[in-house]
Amino acid sequence: MLFNLNNPSKKTGFTSREPAFTLVELLVVVTIFAGLGILLVNSLFAILKSNTKSELIKEIRQNGSFALDVMTKKLTGGQNPTCDVDSSWVSFTDSHGEEITFSCDAGGYIASESAGIKTALTSNQAFGSEEKIKISLTSCSFGCEAVGTNSKVTISFTLSQAGEPIRQEELTQQTFSKVVLVRNQ
Asked: In which band, very low, low, confident or very high, does the pLDDT at 53 lie, cut at 50, 70 and 90?
């Protein structure tokens, strides 16, 4: 029962209703806000995933471009390139008379070897924002061909993220290839 504030001894009935929300209306509003919250969280995770993939693509491109540039510069001024039968390495003499070998290493990277010192041209680890991103050499081949008095060396390799992605659309890889004309000076 409700009491009349002007006259406390007089009891009033339930006939007067003050404006209020019903339980159904409150449940509808809570459901709408929960749905919007779920959509917001999903879009946030999608943005973070695409940012990580962009970083990985950038690192793969930088690694591959660096390796291709180094091999191109060295080969262009080189002499007498020879390739392995299974296309896993190319060896040549540079302009200083030093023997240099570029090879597809079993450790998952492209190596440059001269004077008995082996150096990685592609790294198997790139540094992302918080953690190390693993990069792997998926395929690699070198081909040699004589063109008149010069030689032509074909370089082809593919870099990708190490390990298997959860979904196919998360797969990140890039193929690099170049044909280098060796001057045989």
From this structure: confident
